[in-house]
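Reviewers of the previous submission asked for a worked example of the structure-prediction workflow described in the proposal, so we include one complete record here. The input consisted solely of the amino acid sequence. No template or homolog information was supplied to the procedure at any stage.
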Amino acid sequence: MRTVQALSAALLTLTVAAAPAAADASPSPSQDGTPAPTRAGTSFRTATEIEQGQSATASGSTGDYLYWSFPADTGQRPTVEARVKLPQTHGSQTWQIDVYDGLRRRQACRYGAQTRTAAAGTSSVELACVLRTVRAWSEPWANDPLPGTYYIRLTATGVATADLGLPVGSEVRVDSKDIGGSAAVDGSLAEPLVPGVATKPEEEPEDAAVLAGLEPEDGWASGWWSDRWVWTAAGGILAALAGVGGYALTRGTGRPSRIPPGA
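From that input alone, the workflow returned the following structure tokens.
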């Protein structure tokens, strides 16, 4: 009975310890009151920066390339959603959303409607792309998503000539799910893949400006903590309890009273 009580207390303690990590999983909007962007860039270099949990809007023309960028850190699984408001009169159009990492490598979507065709007269079209979990480290030949800046490109890929140049409105939003220790790997990048990090002089102070102005709320690779530590501690405690319980069950009750001490 004591062993069961100790086991229950240990599991309750671990649950309480893991609660703060779960509470931090959902990204929150900007806390400094920064208004949401109302424009989009036209290339990677001019991409408009947005924060996770923040919706950005932009006006453009059918046939334009619209670019945004956002930061994503280790253990996050970003979800990019876009909505395009189409003109009242238009032909059939195919819209597509692409996501690129800090090395401008196109990242595949695990699931989501990355490409959709809007029939003639449709008022809007919605797109979504759920990326793979961002890894802390990867082999040079792999195409795994790594921490740093990510780029969103929204464009129409199939448009009739008569529809080119028609005004459209767009809205994009990025949210992430914190996967936690299950996605942890043994290794990390020296620097996140953000614009300008390779050209930043080493003699410059740590707060020297780089081309990317946004980063995760708690900084890149924010601390050594991971819920993997919780489950490692849980395994150690359970192993210790199992050892104590096994010893208590197998040691017996001692020398029987019917046997004299000298026997």
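DSSP finds two helices and eleven strands in the chain. We consider this example representative of the routine output the project will generate in years two and three.
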